[in-house]
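Progress report, Aim 2. The chain analyzed during this reporting quarter is listed below.
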Amino acid sequence: MKPWMLAAAIAMLVAACATATSPTGRKQYLSYSDDQLNQMGAQAFTQMKAKQTVATDAGQNAYVQCVVRALVPHLPEEWRGLQWETAVFVDDEPNAFALPGGKVGVNSGMFKVAKNQDQLAAVIGHEIGHVYARHSNERITRQSMASTGLAVVGALAGSRYGQSGADLVTQGGSMVAQLGLLLPFSRVQETEADEIGQRLMAEAGFDPAEAVALWQNMIATSAGRSPEWLSTHPDPQNRIRALQQRVPALQAVRDAARQAGRIPRCSN
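Predicted structure tokens for the chain:
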């Protein structure tokens, strides 16, 4: 197995990707256009609504729509122009998501954890942050690169050590890719979405300190979690400390928003 051959294969994979800069200034590699991801997101959302139970509670649906409508105007123009759509799913698991194309879903169980409009804005702002930062595109790109890279390495190992060598490299390499490449990167995305979402909620007039309270609620309702290095999310206490550190500066942003008349009034 020649090191230069592996390096060349990886270089070709990287060269095939477009480079971009995330909203926080981080370099990104992307394989798909926004239009492609928007179509994927819309299709996935349609499938989810067909397979899962969608809540018919008018109050819950209006509540989510109100928060989304308050947040979206503070995104750049290309994101404001998406066809934003919301749905509440009947599911006790406290969870929410946003898909490319402007599709936002909230489980009914989230209302037991997000105690007020500001905490719900922290959840939805975080999820919208994933869309704004093109995290789905980035994640798909990296997974594709990892899979292709493992196939190349496996082929090279097989040419020298036979099928058993190829299998060993592919299976072992898959675990390394999962633990050393994909999961740590997901934590970077989660941390970035926290930062974007907390600023977004402040710009919309929501209280950024409630993002801290939300995660305290999440910890209180969690029965336990995996170690941080095996998780796709940052450690909750680390996450709370980062959110707390941003609160003083963002309170000033929130105050300016309210002085400008941006005072959200969303209720369930």
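The CA atoms of residues 3 and 217 lie 49 Å apart. The radius of gyration is 21 Å. These observations will guide the mutagenesis work planned for the next reporting period.
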